[in-house]
Amino acid sequence: MVVVSSTFSVPAEGVLFQTPSTKLFVNDQELGTATLYITEHNVIWGGGVNPSGGAAPTISLLYPSISLHAIQKDPSPALYMVLNYELRLPELNQGSGDTEQNEQDDDDDDEFDADNQPITQLRFVPPNESDLNGMYAAMSQGQTLHPDPDDEVDEDAYMDGEEFDDGDEQFEDAEEELAADGGAVAAERLRALRLAANGAHDDSEDAEADQE
């Protein structure tokens, strides 16, 4: 989630790192200069001015919306981020897009194309390049506090030998039921699957025994 606001308040707690006078570029367009706060809960850029001297908006980023962060050297040293979100701001010159292309995209709603998914590239340029390592370390710490649920491994998805044996009995029961109902072909296919599964499991046990 990304929050854009016209108001700003200094984070009261959980600040991991902060850099004043940090320029923000959104898709290579300068939004202004403000203080960057990397906290345990979110990333906030606010309390600054835009290139024209007026008040810059406050940008607040929640960690799940940040798909990538890195230190970038070119075109200038910066903390680089990619958002899995299209950030549209009235302060920036952002085109409305091609109408014909949008209509084509509507016709292809059922087809997922990762290259066409909206993203936003951000570059936070601090006044001192030496601050980049601290900024990166704080971002890594914040991301660790908010892991991506898609990266978590479901341990129940892995079966040990005992669970394999239980599955073998279920295979045999299903074979008998199919055969009794006249489904001889289906029962034979199920039997082949059971034998294949047992063969893979036996090969794994043999390999472990050889290692011992």
Automatic annotation (TrEMBL):
GO biological process: mRNA cis splicing, via spliceosome; spliceosomal snRNP assembly
UniProt keyword list: Cytoplasm, Nucleus
GO annotations of cellular component type: cytosol; pICln-Sm protein complex; spliceosomal complex
Pfam family, one: Voldacs
Region Disordered, annotated ranges: 92-114, 142-167
Main location as per UniProt: cytoplasm
Composition bias, Acidic residues: 100-114, 149-167
Compartment list: Cytoplasm; Nucleus
Organism superkingdom: Eukaryota
Segments passing through the bilayer: none
Name of the protein: Methylosome subunit pICln
Organism in which the protein naturally occurs: Euphydryas editha (Edith's checkerspot)
Lineage: Eukaryota, Metazoa, Ecdysozoa, Arthropoda, Hexapoda
